[in-house]
Amino acid sequence: MPKRFDSGKVEPPRLRRWKRNLAPALATGCLLLLCALFFFPFLWMVCATFKDNPEIFDVKPLFPRAFDFKHYAALLSGQWIPYPRQFMNSLMIAGLQTAMALAFSACAGFVFAKHEFRGKKLLFALSILIILVPRQVMALPLFVWMNTLNLLDSPWAVIFPGIVSGIGVLYFTQAFKRVPDELLDLSRSEGASEYRVFWTALPLVKPALIAYGLIHFILAWHEHLIPLIMLTTANRMTAGVALGTLYGSSRDVPYGLLMAGSAMTVLPTALLYALVQKHFKSSLSELTVQ
After folding, report:
1. For residue 262, how far is the Cα from the chain centroid?
2. CA count, 13 A, side-chain hemisphere, 257
């Protein structure tokens, strides 16, 4: 039957456009409010790096009366802790662990996705079970293992426990499943070895490599438990653990110096995300397309 139209008043075009734009405007306003709420602690931290203790504990004003870089100078000079050395330790540990985790996870994901072998389901299930085991439960066995290998108080004691990731194996298994088998069979028909086939398929999962590499680097950079257990010498500590030793210590450490160290510790991950932001967004969008 034909639709019956109401003979009442017709909404003007301006009102219809206003109603159509209302939802996007409300969503944008809510996102801006959330961004302001999340950004405020970082703004307070950066402003606190230029303040003395009495000024920090004063609620107002937010911005410092003068921009004095004495806390940054004291931190970088090694007056309290060898922070430059510890910063480089964190950078080396996070970088090496990320590179090795990418290599192991990508290789395992390729095998699980493109090969059939005996015990495949069992091994895949065991790799997924790693995700369910809390890091705190593994702390003592890892400590005993590293002590047996005579690696305590060395960067490798922090790097090795993070190079095997159940999330990485699952992530790359799903990523390689999206690669067409025909392309791999074409490489095999040309006489390429299985290692060569893997290197051929690797550029096809570039979005997964970028996304997982960024996430793993951030997690490795901010890891606190394993470096706290494995590292004891100040010159071998990571930046996060070293700053943690200053909190509540008997020394009269300025809070502005602690805030300066925290701000500099956050800086590498923020810069890395800014550099690969476009690739990271495109990576996530490509991975979610079916």
Report:
1. 16
2. 21
* pLDDT at residue 290 in the model: 47
Please tell me the predicted confidence (pLDDT) of residue 281: 63
- The 8-class DSSP code of residue 115 comes to -
| CB 167 within 8 Å of CB 103 | no
Q: What would the DSSP string read from start to end of 140-157?
A: HHHHHHHHHTT-TTSTHH
Are 143 and 230 within 8 A, CB to CB?
yes
Helix (H) or strand (E) holding 19: helix 13-48
Say what the pLDDT of residue 5 is.
45
31 vs 25, 174, 233, CA distance in Å?
10, 31, 44
Backbone torsions φ then ψ of 123, nearest 5 degrees: -65, -40
Reference 201, options 100, 279, 113, 287; nearest CA is 113
Instruction: Give residues with Cβ within 8 angstroms of 172, minimum separation 6.
Output: 105, 106, 108, 109, 110, 113, 205, 208, 212
* pLDDT tens, residue by residue, 225-264: 999 999 989 889 999 888 888 876 656 778 888 888 888 8
Cβ(96)–Cβ(159) under 8 Å? yes
1, 90, 174, 202, 225 from 142: Cα distances, Å: 74, 19, 29, 32, 11
| Residue whose C-alpha is closest to residue 125's, from 170, 85, 159, 89 | 170
Q: Which of 279, 127, 131, 111 is nearest to 209 (CA)?
A: 279
The tokens for 70 are 């004495």
For the stretch 47-92, pLDDT in tens is 888 888 888 877 678 888 888 888 888 888 888 889 999 999 999 9
What residues contact 262, with CB distance under 8 A and at least 6 apart?
A: 45, 243
Q: Which two tokens stand for residue 122?
A: 């069992």
H or E stretch including 88? helix 83-114
pTM: 0.81
